[in-house]
Amino acid sequence: MTRPVVVDIGNSLIKFALADECDGLDTSHVARLPADEPDTWAAQLRQWGVSRVAGWEVASVNPHRLKRLRRWIDGRNEPVRVVKHRSQVAVKLNVDAPDRVGLDRLLNALAVLEYLPKGTPGIVIDVGTAVTVDWLDESHVFQGGAILPGPRVMFESLHGQTAELPLVEGHAVPAVALPGKHTRHAMEAGVMAAHFGAAEYLVREYARDSVNPPWVILTGGALGAMADYQFPGVGPTRTDPLLTLRGVQLAAASRPYSTGTTS
Predict the structure, then answer these.
(1) Taking burial as the number of CB atoms within 10 A of a residue's CB, which of 102, 135, 156, 179 is the most buried?
(2) Which domains does the chain have, with CATH numbers?
(3) pLDDT above 90: residue 80
(4) Hey, which residues are catalytic here?
């Protein structure tokens, strides 16, 4: 089988998804893989029965890992499209430093434009190593947002910056009964409350500045207990774990393929 593969390189993992026959994503063929283990990338393609990749569509928030993947793709002599600058993402911005906005945030915004009706603002919540909560206004202009630590970073910080708190091995927003009855559960309760509380506060504040009720779109590999949450007082809440990959695919569509030109 020969198929295109869409790739999102994050700070912790690399995500592969096969493109379907209608220029979308095959949701049954998505994998979260180690970001620095090429053997696992090749093994995943073999598991999917992909003998040759028709074209790679790639974006990354980690330049070093992007170069490594690109060298591996070039070694396979397969064509690749790389999205690596905000100018390649067709999203209007109203922020103080456009060139410093994370590419993943812009790719999410681009994909959300496929959801939003005309005149409807959108709020994108992406929960991963970091959490971003971004706002697109009624004109679908990216107005900025907020960034906070993700669950794993919070757990590691609590352990690393204190004398006796244990290391809780968790990467996603936990679900725990309140109040926590021992230290581990109390830590999980705090991390859960921090994420729900921050998200609810930001959604409420963005909605206050919106003329029409915003839609909320949730994404990210660390959503955990937030995955099915419905925010009160706004429009519908949707969960799309492949949002960033959809943004990569949309942004890459206007780029030419190249082969064997690692930079």
Answers:
(1) 135
(2) 2-86+248-252 (3.30.420.40), 116-239 (3.30.420.40)
(3) yes
(4) 104
